[in-house]
Amino acid sequence: MPNIKKYTVVAKLPPKLERLREIAFNIWWCWDPDAIDLFFRIDRDLWIKVKQNPVRLLGEVEQDRLEKLAKDEGYLAHLERVYVRFQDYVNNNNWFEKNADAAKNFQAAYFSAEFGLHESIAIYSGGLGVLAGDHLKAASDLGCPLVAVGLMYREGYNTQYLNADGWQQERYPQNDFYNMPVTLVRDKDGELVVITVEYPEGPVKARIWRINVGRVPLYLLDCDFEANDPDNREITARLYGGDNDMRIRQEILLGMGGVTLIRELGVKPTVWHMNEGHSAFMTLERIRNLMQNEGLTLDHSIESVKAASVFTTHTPVPAGNDMFLPELMEHFFRKYTHDIGISTNEFMGMGRQDPSDHREPFCMTVLALKLSTFANGVAALHGDTAREMWSRTWQDVPKAEVPITSITNGVHLRSYVSRDLAGLFDRYLGPDWITDPSDASVWERAESIPDAELWRTHERRRERLVNFARRRIAAQLMSRGAPRAEIEAAKEVLDPDVLTIAFARRFATYKRATLLLTDPERLVRLLENKDRPVQFVFAGKAHPADNLGKELIRNIVHFVRHYDIRNRIVFIEDYDINVARYMTQGVDCWLNTPRRPMEASGTSGMKAAANGAMNISIPDGWWCEAEDLGENGWSIGRGETYDNQEEQDFVESEMLYELLEQEVVPTYYDRGADGLPRQWVARMKCAIRTINPIFNTHRMVQEYTDRFYKAATDRRNAMKENNRERSKALAEWKEKARACWPNVKFVSTTSGPLEGLAYGSSLEVETELGLDQLTPDDVNVEIYYGGLDPYGRIVDGNSSHMELAGPAKDGIFKFKGSIVCDKTGQMGFTVRVIPMHADLAQKHETALITWG
Question: Cystine design at 24: which of 54, 204, 346, 425 (Cβ 3.0–4.6 Å)?
Answer without folding.
Answer: 54
